[in-house]
Design a protein that fits this description.
161 residues; alpha/beta; 6-stranded mixed sheet; binds guanosine-5'-triphosphate; binds magnesium ion; Arl8a protein
């Protein structure tokens, strides 16, 4: 079981659609509240909470991350202006006592587009190396081209109980 959070339009629902059905689409409706999806991949069953990223929904993130095997935090790696907000929201979430120790996977999405931030850029901008008390990984990926989604799924499968 895992939860997918991050700012609006970062690509959370696209992620769940692509891993669920291989369906990429430019037209995705912004999520209202959350979607729940159950997927079977090989012998692993994933239960996924796809939580809305617009400001009014961010207070729900903690509730949906409570008790999961991993938190997936999706960032639009081309939207540099939002990195500070992303860092703030990520730090607020991780400071919740209920989420202590929960593994974190940060996805720098949309790497099919020019000018995207690298993993090193994201580690610096989101201050990922200051996060303590939990495993943290960060990958650059694209839901559109499906780049790196195989290693993302392997990471999640390794942490699923
Ligand atoms: N070029 C490109 N566009 C992407 C990629 N992933 C998502 N998008 C686009 O980004 C927009 C937002 O995607 P969503 O999946 O709806 O984003 P979200 O994070 O679920 O947004 P909220 O539900 O509002 O929190 C859509 O137009 C997608 O087509 C990607 O890897 N590359
Ligand atoms: Mg969504």
């Amino acid at each position: 079981e895992f939860s997918v959070v991050g700012l609006q339009a970062s690509g959370k629902t696209s992620f769940v659609n692509v891993i669920g059905s291989g369906q990429w689409s430019e037209d995705v409706v912004p999520t209202v509240a959350f979607n729940f999806r159950k997927l079977r991949k090989g012998n692993v069953t994933f239960k996924i909470w796809d939580v809305a990223g617009q400001p009014k929904f961010r207070s729900m993130w903690e509730r949906y991350c409570h008790g999961v095997d991993a938190i997936v935090f999706v960032v639009d790696s081309t939207d540099q202006e939002k990195f500070e907000t992303a860092r703030f929201e990520l730090q607020s979430l991780l400071s919740q006592p209920t989420l202590q120790g929960v593994p974190l996977l940060v996805l720098g999405n949309k790497n099919d587009l020019d000018g995207h931030a690298s993993v090193q850029d994201l580690i610096r901008e989101l201050e990922l190396n200051k996060i303590t008390g939990r495993p943290v990984s960060c990958y650059s990926c694209s839901m559109k081209s499906q780049h790196n989604l195989d290693i993302v799924m392997q990471w999640l499968a390794d942490r699923s109980h």
